[in-house]
Amino acid sequence: xxxxxxxxxxxxxxxxxxxxxxxxxxxxxxxxxxxxxxxxxxxxxxxxxxxxxxxxxxxxxxxxxxxxxxxxxxxxxxxxxxxxxxxxxxxxxxxxxxxxxxxxxxxxxxxxxxxxxxxxxxxxxxxxxxxxxxxxxxxxxxxxxxxxxxxxxxxxxxxxxxxxxxxxxxxxxxxxxxxxxxxxxxxxxxxxxxxxxxxxxxxxxxxxxxxxxxxxxxxxxxxxxxxxxxxxxxxxxxxxxxxxxxxxxxxxxxxxxxxxxxxxxxxxxxxxxxxxxxxxxxxxxxxxxxxxxxxxxxxxxxxxxxxxxxxxxxxxxxxxxxxxxxxxxxxxxxxxxxxxxxxxxxxxxxxxxxxxxxxxxxxxxxxxxxxxxxxxxxxxxxxxxxxxxxxxxxxxxxxxxxxxxxxxxxxxxxxxxxxxxxxxx
Length: 425
Ligand SMILES: Cc1cc2nc3c(=O)[nH]c(=O)nc-3n(C[C@H](O)[C@H](O)[C@H](O)COP(=O)(O)OP(=O)(O)OC[C@H]3O[C@@H](n4cnc5c(N)ncnc54)[C@H](O)[C@@H]3O)c2cc1C
Description:
Shape: globular
Bound molecules: flavin-adenine dinucleotide
Number of helices: 14
Radius of gyration: 23 Å
């Protein structure tokens, strides 16, 4: 059997690691083919957006490719093999970094170091995994899946895993690219940002960041920490404030205790996902933001950009609170927020992979996704379970209800297991 993975990030590495250990321990496993146009771990290196590479993981290093190393009655020897062969500690031991990591207090790795770990793991999975350094441009299903890249077509796959969070959402109306950057590539724009900020005296220098989730907070953190000119920073977001997430036992446990998660009703799962995975900032980043008095917060929905008569660009923010309580402040309407630069961190287009599919699959998927509860049609391997849709297109980015770690690093080993179990023949 063969499994294609679109994108060479942590999910691909976790799948490769698990497949390799199953094979090493004598179990059957599919061949894994990873398609990645840039390099393994690209989104973490600082060379392809998302980060400057210097930021640290928010989650612990030990939540690594095999975590939570749960007992698997069908493959009882595999957890031990994963820990020995592919854990963060195995990587550090192999690269002579274990003592230094421990001496420094077992801190989470910088993103660029995490990227090296991912590459090390995928390179190590020599028995089972093939790397193809090409961008996937389309997928097709005719009894089995084929993957088309710019250069060639690769056929005969039993399934395809879509990884990554997709590109940033399209810009708001009036977003002038000279002043509006997105949270994907802002980290690579220092050459443009620095002179823009330096051209304005500190009293008038202002950065507006749209969005109070992880991407927005990472942008603010970067502005404060990377030696950019000091600026007043205003976070604009639809949430009541910047919410924080910490390493709390009961919350963490939801990600490692799959049986417990499975017992929760859908309503409670959605509540947990909203509270723990969306529009929330990890405590270490939130604490760094609290260390400065340069960062403010404005509640409201960013609508569009407008050029003011002063030739300044301004963000129009809808502050209409909706139905008011008796005696509360009158509706605020829209406000215009001028700034030197804007960083749009509203989020990413998770549905990007739809464009890879041909008709009629694309139409079926679009139809399915018009139902707000469509994610309930994903099966235990994060694949769409619908008679009109081909089998085994795994899209963990939409699989939060199935497993809360499918969109993050909290339990990569379990997410990989849920996908690979489909091919346990
Ligand atoms: C910089 C960063 C920091 C984060 N920090 C944390 C954290 O500390 N803790 C946490 O729990 N979560 C964190 N997240 C969120 C989350 O873990 C990730 O978004 C997600 O789980 C990453 O894993 P992935 O393998 O799906 O995708 P990615 O690592 O995003 O990899 C996707 C890959 O797909 C490639 N690609 C894109 N298009 C194509 C195509 N058409 N063909 C082939 N390949 C393609 C890209 O080049 C990329 O390498 C972070 C995310 C990022 C990007």
